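Hallway conversation turned thread

IA: we were arguing at lunch whether anyone had actually written out Vancomycin resistance protein VanK end to end. Turns out nobody had. So, for the record, here is the sequence (382 residues) and right after it the structure tokens. Reply here if something looks off.
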Amino acid sequence: MPFTVRPISSAEHLDHIRSRSSVSFQQTPAWAAVKTEWRGESLGWFAGDRLAGTGLVLHRPVPRLGYTLAYLPWGPDIDWAGGLTDWLSPLVSYLRSQGAFAIRVAPPVRTRTWSAVQVKEGIADPQVTRLTDLPGHTDPVGADVTRYLRDSGWIQQNPESGFGAGQPQFTYEVPLRHPDGTARAEDDVLAGMNQLWRRNIKKAAKAGVEVTTSTGGEDLKAFHDLYVHTAERDRFTPRPLAYFEKMFAALSTEDDGRITLYLAHHEGDLVAAMVYVRVGGHAWYVYGASSGTKRDVRGSNACQWAMIRDSLAAGCDVYDLRGITPTLSADDPHVGLVQFKVGTGGRAVRYVGEWDLPLRPIVYRAFDLYMRRRNQREGAHR
């Protein structure tokens, strides 16, 4: 039976999400309340009366023209394993009718994975400069989706670095289940970490680092102060406190256990703080901050271990440390982030990435030029 796509209520959307093992937190109805500069819309794919798939669309208007970029971050939540014309054609038809000049999707589909051992060997090999130089494990579904999108006129957006204006194409994750589906034990996950990570976790415990959790309030202000300090030290542009207040308010309202703040204190001093999000069986480390002083007590490792343990206790399938760059060159400043995350064990993952389908080519080209120039200006001021 062919699918039809039409708007659904937030309640219908959320009910469908709860029937799934997980979707990205950026595909939940609450995420629209966080991204207030966009107009959010929940869509459903129907086979007759049966709701078969969902997607959160964020509409970004073009000033004075009335058209929008329709963006589905880490979505939509459909069956990407086959029949993509049946799934995507009604989406295109609906969004075209709503005045979209282009559609951007980010399929939550892997194309390749690399074990921690492979990544570490690649970093040690001077002949290897990128993850893609390593063989890895290829996912046939990811290859099929990539081929379909390219052949259907979609345009890939991810730059060589893996980091663009949207979602990272390369991530790092720690599986919390064995290949047979049984849950891993804490000791097993700890044993999969490298010696430095295990030593730092023990060092934090011995130093008396205490990790507590919070749902926001004054603790969120304390996190943000430390986050701004981290941004100044590491030279990135921080988000304002109001953004995190919206994020905690929206996600907490949708589900009590959706978002949690982890805070590591040592002798009364806040030494690290992190934002954790969970949807079903998938848990994410979303934002982190750490103090430039007392680094030797390893508050960041203590926070990460607390989040991993809580993910295991919640029955999660995976703990996601989110974006990395694909670089493995010792000369690249981003390799330190890769090394830090590889220390947890786990695997590096490459996703299909973000793809655009222009519906009004002239408007799309003008918007693309505007965004390139804006990104260049922002880059020049960092």
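OS: looked through it. DSSP finds twelve helices and 16 strands in the chain.
IA: good, adding that to the notes. The first helix runs from residue 10 to 18.
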